[in-house]
């Protein structure tokens, strides 16, 4: 059985107070807290096992390399990749998408080629494509969501034209919690020979992912959202797409031979991993994935679905609160506004009650413009949050209403 209290005990920060109140941490969409096993792994790696990887033949280098490289197989298992060589280490989803933009996009796209995006995208899945718009002259084609925040996969498919070379879409919105039917989109794109990138930053945290079933070409994830260290992450790149890519950066580890006039590359994934990497961050990331897979992603998804349903029910009683995104199967992410109070003011009041939420545009300005909002508050829940914390949020929002109403 999923024991949330036992899980909470694994996260030392959850027992602290903020402003004299028990911490209610609801900013998980930005970054999740870390379990003790991850903290211990980081401490152990720096204290007793640290050396550079891939370079030395001595004991510590071999030990660090083994622990560092073991994460690759864990990511492959977590995403159900066909082979661990399809997993590239990154500092997170932002680097992963930029890698695709430079290493695949610059090599394979030309002026007039089209990239299809949804309005739900985070800036990390927008800005790198703007780079290609500016530098190559590619065209960005946008697909809007419905008023309830849902995204019709057929609308994305209909936007694919003769010049479409890439579809880049999130699996879960970081603003509305909307879940996107990326499998339908990716299978339709593959039938047309169109590459697909699915932003997995939010979705991968909340339930099982199977990239082979989805049928995507690129799937980036972020370690710090998956209860691992910041500066860690990975991207799945299907082997056929890797063959179409040039190296992202040049330096150590990504080469086979270097001469005065010639250079040959290492085989993937090292071909795309130049320089000394985030060794300890990646080791910690692997431990975080072990922790999640030990709990079971299906179990996490089921628990969070119940939590999301309860939060939806409780927030619906606040008829003066406007929630952005109301699809029935949305994830446990709630962005909201309150008449008469700016999102920053709401966040400040909640903080005084020990409730941590995010306020602003959430790195999704096109979506916020589409929703007609300049800023919202966002409460994003994780597997360690409880119904009591939902009640704490509601009570703090009622206090806001009293102050600003």
Automatic annotation (TrEMBL):
The GO terms this record gives for MF are: cysteine desulfurase activity; pyridoxal phosphate binding
Among Gene3D superfamilies, the record links this protein to:
Aspartate Aminotransferase, domain 1, Type I PLP-dependent aspartate aminotransferase-like (Major domain)
What does the UniProt keyword field contain?
A: Pyridoxal phosphate, Transferase
Query: Could you confirm whether the keyword Transferase appears in this record?
Result: yes
> GO BP, one example?
cysteine metabolic process
Q: Which residues form the Aminotransferase class V domain?
A: 24-393
Required co-factor? pyridoxal 5'-phosphate
List the InterPro entries.
Aminotrans_V_dom (IPR000192), Aminotrans_V_PyrdxlP_BS (IPR020578), Cys_dSase_SufS (IPR010970), PyrdxlP-dep_Trfase (IPR015424), PyrdxlP-dep_Trfase_major (IPR015421), PyrdxlP-dep_Trfase_small (IPR015422)
Q: Name one Pfam family in it.
A: Aminotran_5
How far does the signal peptide extend, from start to end residue? none
Name the top EC class: transferase
In the UniProt record, does the keyword Cytoplasm occur? no
Q: What is its EC number?
A: 2.8.1.7
Catalytic reaction(s) noted? (sulfur carrier)-H + L-cysteine = (sulfur carrier)-SH + L-alanine
Annotated family: Belongs to the class-V pyridoxal-phosphate-dependent aminotransferase family. Csd subfamily.
User: Which PANTHER family does this UniProt record tie to the protein?
Assistant: CYSTEINE DESULFURASE (PTHR43586), CYSTEINE DESULFURASE 1, CHLOROPLASTIC (PTHR43586:SF8)
Q: What does this protein do?
A: Catalyzes the removal of elemental sulfur and selenium atoms from L-cysteine, L-cystine, L-selenocysteine, and L-selenocystine to produce L-alanine.
State the protein's name: Cysteine desulfurase
Question: Organism, per UniProt?
Answer: Aquimixticola soesokkakensis
Q: What is the lineage of its organism?
A: Bacteria, Pseudomonadati, Pseudomonadota, Alphaproteobacteria, Rhodobacterales
């Amino acid at each position: 059985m999923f024991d949330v209290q036992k899980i909470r005990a694994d996260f030392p920060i959850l027992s602290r107070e903020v402003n004299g109140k028990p911490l209610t941490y609801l900013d998980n969409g930005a970054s999740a807290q870390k379990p003790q096993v991850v903290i211990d792994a980081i401490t152990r790696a720096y204290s007793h096992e640290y050396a550079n990887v891939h370079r030395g033949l001595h004991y510590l280098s071999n030990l660090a390399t083994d622990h560092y490289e073991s994460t690759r197989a864990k990511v492959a298992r977590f995403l159900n990749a066909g082979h661990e060589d399809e997993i590239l280490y990154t500092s997170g989803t932002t680097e992963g998408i930029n890698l695709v933009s430079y290493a695949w996009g610059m090599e394979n796209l030309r002026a007039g080629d089209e990239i299809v995006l949804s309005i739900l995208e985070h800036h990390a899945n927008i800005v790198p494509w703007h780079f290609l718009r500016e530098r190559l002259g590619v065209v960005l084609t946008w697909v809007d969501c419905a008023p309830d925040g849902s995204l019709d996969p057929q609308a994305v498919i209909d936007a694919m034209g003769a010049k479409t070379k890439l579809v880049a879409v999130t699996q879960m919105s970081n603003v509305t919690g909307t879940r996107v039917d990326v499998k339908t989109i990716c299978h339709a794109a593959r039938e047309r020979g169109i590459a697909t990138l699915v932003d997995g930053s939010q979705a991968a945290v909340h339930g099982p992912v199977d990239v082979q079933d989805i049928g995507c070409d690129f799937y980036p994830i972020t370690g710090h959202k998956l209860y691992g260290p910041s500066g860690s992450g990975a991207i799945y790149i299907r082997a056929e797409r890797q063959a179409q890519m040039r190296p992202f950066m040049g330096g150590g580890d990504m080469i086979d031979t270097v001469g005065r006039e010639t250079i040959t590359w290492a085989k993937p994934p090292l071909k795309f991993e130049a320089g000394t990497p985030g060794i300890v961050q990646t080791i910690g990331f692997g431990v975080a994935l072990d922790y999640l897979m030990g709990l079971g992603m299906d179990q996490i998804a089921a628990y969070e679905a119940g939590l999301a349903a309860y939060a939806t029910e409780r927030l619906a009683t606040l008829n003066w609160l406007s929630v952005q995104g109301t699809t029935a199967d949305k994830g446990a992410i709630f962005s909201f506004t309150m008449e008469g109070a700016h999102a920053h003011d709401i966040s400040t009041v909640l903080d005084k009650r020990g409730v941590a939420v995010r306020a602003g545009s959430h790195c999704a300005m096109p979506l916020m413009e589409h929703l007609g909002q300049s800023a919202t508050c966002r409460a994003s829940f994780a597997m360690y949050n409880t119904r009591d914390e939902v009640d704490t949020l509601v009570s703090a929002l009622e206090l806001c209403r009293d102050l600003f109403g």
